[in-house]
From TrEMBL:
InterPro entries per the UniProt record, alphabetical: DinB-like, DinB/YfiT-like
Residues of the DinB-like domain: 32-161
Gene3D superfamilies with a match to the protein in the record: dinb family like domain
Record-linked Pfam families: DinB_2 (PF12867)
Protein name from the UniProt record: DinB family protein
Superkingdom of origin organism: Bacteria
Length: 170
């Protein structure tokens, strides 16, 4: 998984040190796209099996919160093995489609800030620390990879949201 053809994202570990600010900028964009469409129905799925814009926003918030905990675990543990976050189960367990848009957008901004803070506090040597990442299958990765992967999550889901609320954006 070095390149995502869907959103044209290339994994470059050199981008890790800028991941915090890049993610904050990406989340600002997600929030502004959804605010512009706040009068539309953002809860209902356009197609069965494809999350609604609100569900994507909830997912992104949870990704950032989970990744923050993982960064902290990597700092204090030798090669931690992470369990999957339960992305599909959370949709129902947290009731993504029933959440309040304003709450979710505020939480999304906070989650990006919380994640960026733990990245900003890393020592230079921390980026090479190992972990076992669960997705798509358990694989040993560095913290730098995980930071870049999180940038990809934001970019990819910004696209998922845009395709639904701004179909012309392609
Ligand atoms: Zn992608």
């Amino acid at each position: 998984m070095d390149h995502c053809g869907e959103c044209d994202f290339t994994y470059d570990p050199a981008d890790a040190s800028a991941a915090g600010p890049t993610i904050r900028d990406g989340v600002v964009e997600v929030v502004s796209v959804l605010r512009r469409r706040a009068g539309d129905d953002l809860r209902t799925r356009r197609r069965p099996g494809v999350w609604s814009p609100l569900e994507y926003a909830c997912h992104l918030r949870d990704v950032l919160l989970v990744q923050r905990e993982r960064v902290l675990a990597v700092r204090r543990t030798e090669r931690p093995v992470f369990a999957p976050m339960g992305r599909d189960e959370r949709v129902d367990h947290e009731g993504y489609a029933e959440q309040d848009l304003d709450d979710v957008l505020r939480q999304l901004g906070d989650a990006a800030g919380l994640f960026g803070n733990v990245l900003a506090r890393l020592d230079p040597g921390d980026w090479d620390r190992d972990l076992v990442y669960p997705y798509p299958g358990p694989t040993t990765r560095t913290l730098a990879w995980m930071a870049v992967h999180t940038v990809h999550e934001v970019r990819h889901h910004l696209r998922d949201i845009r395709l639904q609320v701004e179909p012309a954006a392609g």
